[in-house]
Specification:
Strand order of the largest sheet: 1-2-5-4-3
Radius of gyration: 47 Å
Largest sheet: 5 strands, antiparallel
Number of strands: 12
Order of helices and strands: HEEHEEEHHHEHHEEHEEHEE
Number of helices: 9
Strand content: 15-25%
Distance between the termini: 28 Å
Oligomer: single chain
Shape: rod-shaped
Number of domains: 3
Helix content: 40-55%
Length: about 425
């Protein structure tokens, strides 16, 4: 069985996963944006106030000067802290932020100014840890932001669930109607709810197909009635005429009467077979006991053909069993398979094997690619077999044998009761 989920579940799953990924993405963006904003703010502030303090070096001050608890300025590269020196070269100018392994963070700004020693590159170093959030504050802020995001996610999820059910409800109603609809009820289907363009197109196409199926079903019923009445009536008239002809004491008339009578019987069986194949009612199917006696009755009808074609015939029934099928249709399958095999195996051999699982008819005749007795193909016999197999969901196959002739097989859909 196909493990399929409702459309609403698939829509909800896709949107919720997408919303979760989007929430995580924007959380990461928000986190890095805060860090970037802090660094940029520190660098710009330091670049703004540093030139004002650098004037001290032009007034005669030298070395390292502590401006405030956060800010220090230096008039030469060599006196910078070692951790800063190894990250900068002595010609560097501009502003930058460094984050060290001990979680300390510094902003650095440098530019050329006029000092007591002449024009030199001076430096401003600011400890920005003093003004930035510590880890606890930042974690609390992140938790608050995450909580707000989660709240928005839940609201969006509820909205998505509601909209998904609203979108999928018409499709679910249509699917339920198709599944629970009476097989003989072909009235147009209708669904409630908000209809999309695709659903309207689908509903229109389904109703169009249902209308065509209904018309075809009505034509089939009418044809079945016509065949049942209009063809059986002439058969009855022919049988009456034959019974009168048989009263004549003429050997030729009797011989022709027997041929006509045999043809009428075949025609009646064929009509009955067509009528049974046209029906779909499960109540028409019954359990039939398949035994050697049952098969012998079918084979008796071929005794004259077997003798005339000089065919060596062999039959083998594995065991008696019961099969859920119309007796006449099962007989029609065996009849048509034997008829094709015997007619195409003049002076040959035909074998019939029947078991609870399958039927096999094997011959060493002309095979599938030749023309038996000058006729094209094999008539409608195999088509009848194929249609009966489709009715009962059996598997039918016919193939050439390596040594000549062919093998026709019918495999029953499920094990039968032995």
């Amino acid at each position: 069985m196909i493990n399929a989920k409702p459309m609403s579940s698939k829509i909800i799953h896709i949107y919720l996963v997408g919303a979760m990924v989007l929430l995580a993405f924007y959380g990461a963006i928000f986190y890095h944006t805060i860090l970037y904003t802090e660094n940029q703010s520190s660098e710009r502030r330091l670049a703004l106030i540093s030139p004002y303090h650098f004037k001290l070096f032009s007034q005669g001050f030298e070395g390292e000067i502590q401006i405030d608890p956060m800010l220090k300025i230096y008039d030469e590269y060599d006196i910078l802290p070692p951790s800063i020196k190894r990250r900068l070269n002595n010609n560097w100018q501009g502003s930058i932020t460094f984050h060290f392994e001990d979680d300390s963070e510094y902003s650095v700004f440098s530019q050329e100014v006029i000092t007591k020693k002449g024009i030199a590159i001076v430096y401003a170093l600011e400890d920005i840890d003093a003004i930035e959030w510590d880890d606890t504050e930042f974690a609390i802020f992140q938790a608050v932001i995450f909580g707000l995001g989660l709240f928005i996610y839940i609201i969006a999820a509820l909205f998505i669930i509601k909209m998904a059910k609203r979108i999928s409800t018409p499709f679910s109603n249509l699917a339920n109607q198709l599944e629970n609809n009476d097989k003989e009820n072909y009235t147009p289907l209708m669904v409630d709810g908000e209809l999309s363009l695709e659903l309207v197109q689908m509903l229109t196409s389904i109703n169009s197909y249902r209308s065509r199926i209904h018309d075809a079903f009505m034509r089939e019923q009418a044809f079945t009635r016509y065949v049942s009445h209009e063809l059986r009536t002439p058969m009855t008239v022919i049988r009456g005429g034959i019974s009168i002809l048989r009263r004549l004491d003429d050997e030729k008339v009797k011989k022709q009467s027997n041929r006509i009578d045999h043809a009428v019987i075949e025609m009646e069986q064929l009509i009955h077979t067509f009528l049974l194949m046209a029906r779909n009612e499960e109540s028409d199917t019954i359990n039939v006991d398949i035994s050697a006696e049952f098969i012998d009755q079918i084979v008796q009808g071929f005794e004259s053909t077997i003798k005339a074609n000089q065919v060596i015939f062999h039959q083998e029934i594995q065991c008696d069993f019961s099969l859920n099928v119309q007796p006449l249709l099962f007989s029609a399958v065996v009849n048509n398979l034997l008829k094709n095999a015997i007619n195409c195996s003049v002076n040959g051999k035909v074998s019939l094997f029947i078991s609870p699982q399958r039927i096999d008819v094997i011959d060493n005749g002309v095979g599938l690619d030749a023309k038996p007795r000058g006729y094209e193909g094999f008539g409608i016999g195999l088509n009848i077999v194929r249609d009966i197999c489709e009715k009962y969901h059996w598997q039918f196959s016919i193939k050439n044998n390596l040594g000549g002739g062919c093998t026709a097989s019918v495999i029953f859909e499920s094990p039968v009761d032995i």
